[in-house]
Amino acid sequence: MGLLRGRSAPEAGEAIESAVRRARKPLTAARAKRMIGVSKAVAPLLAPYALAAAAVARTRWDAYRAARLGVEPGQLGAYAGRGGALHARLSRMAEALDRLDSGAEAHGTGAARRFAVDTRPRLADLAVAVRAAEQMPTPRRRTAYRAIGAELDRLEIALLHHLGVQG
Fold this sequence. Notes:
The chain has helices spanning about 10-25, 30-70, 85-100, 110-135, 140-160. By secondary structure, the chain is mostly helical. The chain has two domains: about 10-65, no CATH class; about 80-160.
């Protein structure tokens, strides 16, 4: 505000207009050369910080996406694409069935093992359906993904029942 100190209102208005005009100078060849020169001097100083910030942002974004899918960040590439979330769900379901079938779970009863054996072919069919739906036009793909998701929901509820979790 030192620009306006000690001036009357009309003089202050003129000073502000003058400052705005100076700030909005048209881009001339001389100004462009000056800006390029400044950027050549400043860019090498700022580039490492910009790259480090970009790397941190990418790492956080990948961790966020991996957490949403329920996988490790290192496995994120395996679940990329339109059907990635469904592939991740299928994979996690298959892992749970393996643990249920091996008897490692406390609720590994005969019925639970039969459920695991009967469900594995269904998971394979759903994985094929997800891959096939990836090539479909958008409206059909969305419909197929909803149907696959509903089937996975049903299987997950049955799995939770066999694990003794009441929902």
